């Protein structure tokens, strides 16, 4: 380590997006020094400005998680901030909407960004996490649990869930915990293109959620904070849906099956 410090560093990828930003702010409030990583500079700088505004400490770093040199800079910057003890793999992106639209090229792209990038970031800081008995928190999706469109993204998120279990089982002896969070629909800028096609997209989606709402980025951030904290010290290898009840079932369908208006 380049710096002797008791400060704990949390590395958050995709920190310029709405969910990544909310996670950085929440972790900073928890006392972590936050290393915010994103390929895009301006939104990531804004994240760190908000971290500082919330009274936290942290730095923004431009980093393409798929680039080995950038990952080496990530490790260096993380150690400068403190002892790297948390990695939140939050980068995610989608390509083809359906298997009929999917190609070998965009399927590979989906796997690189949603799965390989997370694995590569973990490998880059593996020794730090062992040394610091750290935590890995992967942001997956309900798309990794069932079919909700975007096949390449979904298959990669399912793989990310299994990667989470692989880490939990093999690295548990080092004191490392690994968990995943599977959000349902979250109101973020990632939906902008779809909202242009259908401004009612969130209203339409609500129909399928038992809580009759979609999540906000802070809903995800609060669960990341919990599952990455000592309060969750005995939880490892799980996938926690943060989906307003989506994966429990659909009230409308239950009503049809039961022929009851109670649903
Ligand atoms: N928004 C939702 O409804 C939803 C639902 C389920 C899961 N998720 C997951 O939550 C996470 C965050 O979602 P979001 O809606 O905030 O997404 P977003 O697209 O708004 O943010 C993702 C961020 O990742 C950055 N990024 C992309 N490629 C990168 C790379 N190679 N290196 C570094 N940074 C890179 C982007 O610049 C962007 O700032 C993703 O993993 C996503 O799959 C989101």
UniProtKB/TrEMBL annotation:
Query: Does the keyword field hold Metal-binding?
Result: no
Under the heading PROSITE patterns, the entry gives: ADH_SHORT
Pfam family, any one: adh_short_C2
Chain segments annotated as transmembrane: none
Keyword annotations: Oxidoreductase
Q: Family per UniProt?
A: Belongs to the short-chain dehydrogenases/reductases (SDR) family.
PANTHER family linked: DEHYDROGENASES, SHORT CHAIN, ESTRADIOL 17-BETA-DEHYDROGENASE 8-RELATED
Report what the protein is called. Answer: SDR family oxidoreductase
């Amino acid at each position: 380590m380049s710096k002797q410090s008791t400060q704990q560093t949390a590395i958050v990828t995709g920190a310029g997006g709405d969910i990544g930003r909310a996670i950085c702010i929440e972790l900073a409030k928890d006392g972590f020094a936050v290393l915010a990583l994103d390929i895009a500079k301006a939104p990531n700088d804004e994240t760190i400005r908000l971290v500082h505004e919330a009274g936290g400490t942290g730095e923004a770093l431009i980093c393409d998680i798929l680039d080995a040199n950038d990952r080496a800079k990530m490790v260096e910057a993380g150690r400068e901030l403190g002892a790297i003890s948390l990695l939140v793999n939050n980068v995610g992106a989608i390509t083809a909407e359906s298997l009929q639209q999917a190609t070998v090229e965009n399927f590979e792209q989906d796997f690189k960004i949603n799965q390989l990038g997370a694995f590569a970031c973990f490998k880059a800081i593996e020794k730090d996490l062992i040394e610091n008995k750290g935590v890995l928190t992967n942001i997956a999706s309900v798309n990794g649990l069932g079919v909700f469109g975007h096949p390449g993204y979904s298959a990669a998120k399912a793989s990310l869930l299994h990667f989470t279990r692989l880490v939990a089982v093999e690295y548990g002896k080092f004191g490392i915990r690994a968990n995943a969070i599977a959000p349902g629909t979250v109101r973020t800028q990632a939906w902008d293109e779809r909202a242009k096609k259908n401004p009612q997209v969130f209203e339409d989606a609500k129909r399928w959620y038992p809580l009759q709402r979609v999540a906000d980025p802070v809903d995800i951030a609060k669960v990341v904070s919990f599952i990455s904290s000592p309060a969750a010290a005995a939880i490892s290898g799980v996938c926690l849906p943060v989906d307003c009840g989506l994966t429990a079932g659909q009230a409308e369908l239950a009503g049809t099956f039961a022929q009851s208006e109670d649903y």
